[in-house]
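--- STAGE predict ---
source: upstream dedup step, 1 unique chain passed
mode: sequence only
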Amino acid sequence: MNCNDDDTPGIALQTGNWAQLGEAAGALRLAVFVREQGIPAALEYDAWDARSMHCVAWCDGEPVATGRLLPDGHIGRMAVRADQRGRGIGRRVLQTLMALARQRGDTSVELSAQSRVEGFYRAQGFEPVGEPYEEIGIPHLKMRRSLLALAAWAGATIATGGASPARAAALDAVSNADAIGALRATLERGAGQAVAALGRPGGFLDDPKARIPLPDGLRQAEGLLRATGRGRELDELVASMNRAAEQAVPQAKQLLLAAVKSMSVADAKSILTGGEDSVTQFFQSRTQAPLVERFLPIVTQQVSRLGLAKRYNALAGQASKLGLLKARDASVERYVTTRALDGLYLMIAEEERAIRRDPLKAGSKVIERVFGALR
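--- STAGE serialize ---
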């Protein structure tokens, strides 16, 4: 099988057995493992070569990278010629071997990675298994990657009528690493847009969906207060509450991006296969508590100076102790902080719905294939 590699022009990938590719693969492994790394030649070649599927990458008619897939789902003997490293050729060989494993029905693949290239395999969706060890004097780490993170859900939704076989195939064709990378980029973009929309003058005050109204206790008395000439104070409090939220929201961006960077394979699977608000739930679970701590001082500085806020706090505090008000409404500062977070997560939810409705607008062909298959 030959194919052109769009990411690395001039590269063609070929798969086959040892009889077909052994000469090219063997020469590469001799150069990389034996000559470059000093591994004894007697240990480099074994009986598994004849029983494995191999992949060789070619450039201008010369072999530049190789790897093999054993019958039990182990990937090994990954080697890239020294002058061709850093071009993404090794990644393409690895993805080709994983595609072969998936096509024959394997549910996972494993490999023994040299510790110095652990990051490369992590980027392709592999996770460490067990403790590091030495092999031929070189530190190694066993790593594994499931091939079912997306396909298993697709099969389940087909069984319940939730997705067509064509959509399931679209999901199955997307590698975990590609999907997670695209998902991270999409979430970063969505979080940034939500913060930008709310963290500007008028972001809360001028948006009916996010605008923070008077606390219930004051709303119930609003008519009386306006009738007695207190309308200006009410309007000033509403404006101050919303301005405070607008000033606090930019503090969220760093924590939201940190949450995206910490996203695990399991988190990504939950988001991709979860409900319509799985992205919002992910952010809320990771950021709500620390954001309260960041928002509250900013909100307090804005609204605590207002006389009406002080009087409300005194009355609301007593009402809360008697169980007449929720704790979140016991002070204007906490009320605004909570409503600011509600507005932020509401905006993130809207970004999420927009991506699910029209994933191509997210700017990623991979995320379009993933969310497009879920529609």
